[in-house]
Amino acid sequence: MKLATRLWRSTRIARAGVTLWLLYKPPDYLRRVFGLGTPSRRDRTHERAASVMLRTALDLRGVVIKVCQVIATRSDVFPPAFVRLLKQLHDAVPPQPFERIAAAVERELGRPLDAAFVEFERIPLASASLAQVHRARLRDGRAVAVKVQYPDIEEIVRTDLENIRRGCQIYERLDPQPLELLPLLTELTSHLALELDFRREADSADRVREIFRDDPSVVVPEVYREWSTSRVLTMELVDGIKVTDLDALRRAGLDPGEVVQELMRIFVRMILAAGFFQADPHPGNLFVRPNRQIVLMDFGLSKELPEGFGLGLFELMFSMMTLNEAAMIRAFRELGFATKTGDPAPFLEIARRMMRRSDTGRFEGEFTEEMTDELFEAVRENPVVRVPSDFVLVGRAFSLLSGIAHSLGHRANVLAAMGART
Asked: What angle do CA 335, 371, 339 make, to 5 degrees?
């Protein structure tokens, strides 16, 4: 990637950040000090802010789109304008020209396109942050979906990750925190690099399919290895209803509440029982078939959890539900949290603040975005020096599932899912 392009991406991100700050901070000050402003004006601000983020994501793609995809699932946290405008980034990113995609496939497979496929549709089924997917048919007649990595995406991701690290460094210098943010965020964002290796994604898909080998209600499309490489993934074409398409679910005779709990059961089995899970459950990766099967897609960001993690997470949930402080401390330590002095008091403060987000003052089965935000706010105010990245990814996954559930008018209850068949 040329230096000019790198500078442009950095400048574009910085300009968007300044614009968002100007949209919110000065009006907030005027409203707080002078009582100026109305709800309608606030709604217009949300519209403008969401438009800024959408334009920035579409211009830059890569990591920026990933951030906006998370925001678009949080209908219970972010204003409707954000959800409405940003949700198109799940699978409706403007595609790259077919000629570039066809050339990439031919280069990766080492043969002309028509030597591998009897059909290859020019218009993609979906376009996302790192790749786009085309419907095709192999010469033996099998209908397939071909996921093709954008030719220049590796440099884009590398540049965006550098910008995130640089921004983190600036933040820590201007506003030092007890928690060292740079190592944590660097580790978290580095998982994006793993999504660039489609061979690893194929291995992860096979592993999740094996987890549910005895469960016909879960579908993981088969990967055709002979027509796949590190940048091209050819897999079984499986249809389904997008998990957040409430009207389509109802037309198919599906109960959205049952869909939510089935989805939670699947992820509870992966996280708590198998110790390996698909860590990016946004709506573009989850589909429901009319026969009630759940289709899991896109295993680029999958994670193996350390031994004992599931038990530690269960103990944390149960201790917050029963208000058992000794068990809370033990669970935090088992999950890998640590403090500078070894004093367990910060763990109790973190748990208490998380539980304040519920009406009863105790954990009720749902890891919401508010609980996650409260956790990290409490971490910043206490001498916590290490937050395990595994916990961050699991918390993010449950937050995404919570957002999907709220968009369907339900709650994603982990405890209820644990009582379902596994």
From this structure: 40
pLDDT in tens, 55-76: 988 888 777 887 787 677 555 4
Q: Considering only CA atoms, which of 343, 347, 309 is closest in space to residue 327?
A: 347
Residue 305 has pLDDT above 60, yes or no: yes
Rounded to the nearest 10 degrees, the angle between the axes of helix 325-335 and helix 309-322 is 160
8 A C-beta contact, residue 50 and residue 82: yes
pLDDT given at position 375: 73
- Residue in 280, 298, 359, 390 annotated catalytic: 280
Catalytic, 114? Answer no
pLDDT per position as a tens digit, 113-132 = 999 999 999 999 988 778 99
Q: Are 313 and 268 in contact (CB under 8 A)?
A: no
CA gap 173, 160 in Å, rounded: 20
Are the beta carbons of 211 and 413 closer than 8 angstroms?
Answer: no
Q: Say if residues 305 and 390 touch (Cβ distance below 8 Å).
A: yes
How far is residue 260's CA from residue 151's CA, in Å, rounded to a whole number? 36
Q: Helix, strand, or coil here: 81?
A: helix
DSSP secondary structure letter of residue 92:
B
Query: How far apart, in whole angstroms, are the C-alpha atoms of residue 183 and residue 60?
Result: 24
DSSP state of 79: -
Residue bearing tokens 């690099």: 193
d(CA 115, CA 79): 49
pTM: 0.77
Q: Helix (H, G, I), strand (E, B), or coil: what is residue 152?
A: coil
Instruction: Report the C-alpha gap between 363 and 357 in whole angstroms.
Output: 9
What are the beta bridge partners of residue 135?
145
Predicted confidence (pLDDT) per residue in 205-250, tens digit: 999 999 999 999 999 999 999 999 999 999 999 999 999 999 999 9
Cα–Cα distance between 250 and 113 in angstroms, integer? Answer: 40
Spans of all domains in the chain? 3-87, 239-422
> Of all helices (H) and strands (E), which one includes residue 276?
strand 276-278
Residues with Cβ within 8 Å of residue 190, at least 6 apart in sequence: 161
